[in-house]
Amino acid sequence: MKNIVPEQDRVYLPIAESNQVYPVGRVYCVGRNYAEHSKEMGDDPERDPPFFFAKDSSCVVPACFSESTLITYPMATSQFEYEVELVIAIGKGGRNLTMQQSREAILGYAVGLDMTRRDLQSQAKKKGRPWEVGKSFDESAPISPILLKTDLLADNVSKAEIGLKVNGDLKQISNVTNLTWSIEEVICKLSEVFELRPGDLIMTGTPENVGAVVVGDEMQAWVEHLGEIRVSVTG
């Protein structure tokens, strides 16, 4: 059979210190998985079951460690906000995974930004509508190369500092230990509602103090032991 329209390009993330790449499938995001961010968004930070939303794989922008990555200020918004996140790359699929199976499902880790059109997201929330207009748009998920999991890295990441600066000024700072739902718990819960597949990415939530950026701003986002990415906003 012949395609009636050109096939869309697949998105790949490089594997750090390797010539291998990771073909991105689905991108799942966890809403409000740090208590202080839940509070600033007006929610109760208690351990209600985590909720999930998705970004299209085309939202992913591979961001390198060595130089700044450019993203374009998006259309239809005047409140373009950053959210630094620890990203999990899934290497083994499955449904209704146990905690042990969830650990084994992790291929590696990355640093990511869940860029958000906050004004559009807020309008959607007020009307009880889906969040895609505020979350799933072009270049809304810059993500670093993936560092493959080792036992030592897994232990270090579980208690790593996570943070973000804008133009050198510290905006977000926290620790992965402050996740309301741990990495493995998030994978377990997600696998109860979606059968996970190799190639899936999970953005695990952002700490407090999200905020807006404008054209010309540069963000520095990091997770301890995984490195730092720099992302600049262009017009």
TrEMBL record:
Gene3D superfamilies: Fumarylacetoacetase-like, C-terminal domain
Pfam families: FAA_hydrolase
Location of the Fumarylacetoacetase-like C-terminal domain: 27-233
UniProt-recorded Gene Ontology molecular function terms: acetylpyruvate hydrolase activity; metal ion binding
Spans traversing the lipid bilayer: none
SUPFAM superfamilies assigned to the protein according to its UniProt record, in alphabetical order: FAH (SSF56529)
Record's keyword annotation contains Transmembrane: no
Keyword hit for Metal-binding: yes
Protein keywords: Hydrolase, Metal-binding, Pyruvate
InterPro entries listed in its UniProt record: Fumarylacetoacetase-like_C, Fumarylacetoacetase_C_sf
Superkingdom in the source lineage: Bacteria
Protein name: Fumarylpyruvate hydrolase
Biological source species: Marinomonas polaris DSM 16579
Lineage: Bacteria, Pseudomonadati, Pseudomonadota, Gammaproteobacteria, Oceanospirillales
